[in-house]
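User: Here's a structure from my thesis project, written as structure tokens. My advisor, Dr. K., wants to see whether a designed sequence matches the one we expressed. Can you design one independently, without my sequence as a hint?
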């Protein structure tokens, strides 16, 4: 659904935190993202879904400035990230799938390093670092090297690093993958708090139950093309009453909803 259509359907004065027109990314002859028009309302929790290889991570990499699109345009918080990348990076936080942490820094050093990059005063950086480490249940590990962290601890530290500058938009690529229930709950509560204060979250995840519970809006990509987008309740209503997000998703990406026959040797 294009920006004008989204505004007309839900709110004529709606601000968009993320907007793309014809966003395309090619790798040689392979088209990973094929002319998608994203419209992510400011203050929303937007779940970006798709099968493996659909183009989700490539889209996030374009939106966060890690790679340039082959064609199309983008606006992040009202700014063109290609023309003014520094302004966009100052107002956004990113938790990439590979986390991108420095193993030989401690948790405290990691957060202070990120704060310095953003030009934060030392007192503010230390206060926010302490708040985030306490909230993430990492206070006792603040002086531990990241190389000794568990996967769940790394996820929480990466989210803390994304949050310390006080962004208005968070890009989260598979934040729940490989973490336990306790860490998952902590991350979910922090994300909901962020949105409740007016922030916007752009989330990719294969865990549809979590996306269904958290998201206000979703977009679905398959084979590089955006096949659905809008408020989650509106998309459910359009697909028939009583459908779960899993059933809606499988129907949109062309999966088979029929019961599968088990292998006779299992």
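Assistant: Designed independently from the structure alone:
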């Amino acid at each position: 659904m294009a920006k004008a259509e989204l505004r007309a359907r839900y709110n004529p004065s709606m601000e968009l935190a993320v907007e793309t027109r014809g966003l395309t990314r090619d790798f040689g002859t392979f088209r990973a993202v094929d002319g998608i028009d994203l419209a992510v309302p400011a203050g929303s929790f937007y779940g970006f879904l798709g099968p493996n290889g659909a183009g989700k991570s490539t889209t996030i990499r374009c939106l966060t400035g890690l790679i340039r699109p082959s064609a199309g345009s983008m606006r992040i918080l009202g700014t063109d990230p290609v023309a003014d990348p520094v302004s966009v990076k100052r107002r956004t936080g990113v938790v990439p799938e590979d986390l991108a942490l420095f193993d030989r820094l401690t948790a405290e050093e990691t957060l202070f390093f990120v704060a310095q990059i953003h030009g934060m005063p030392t007192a503010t950086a230390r206060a926010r670092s302490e708040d985030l480490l306490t909230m993430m249940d990492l206070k006792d590990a603040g002086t531990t090297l990241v190389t000794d962290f568990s996967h769940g601890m790394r996820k929480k530290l990466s989210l803390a690093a994304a949050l310390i500058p006080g962004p208005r938009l968070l890009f989260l690529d598979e934040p729940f993958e490989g973490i336990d229930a306790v860490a998952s709950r902590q991350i979910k509560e922090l994300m909901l708090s962020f949105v409740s204060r007016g922030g916007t979250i752009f989330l990719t995840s294969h865990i549809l139950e979590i996306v269904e519970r958290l998201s206000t809006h979703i977009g679905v990509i398959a084979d590089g093309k955006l096949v659905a987008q809008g408020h989650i309740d509106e998309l459910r209503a359009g697909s028939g009453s009583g459908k779960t997000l899993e059933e809606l998703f499988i129907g949109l990406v062309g999966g088979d909803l029929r019961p599968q026959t088990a292998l006779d040797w299992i």
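When you compare it with your expressed construct, this may help: Residues 98-166 form one domain.
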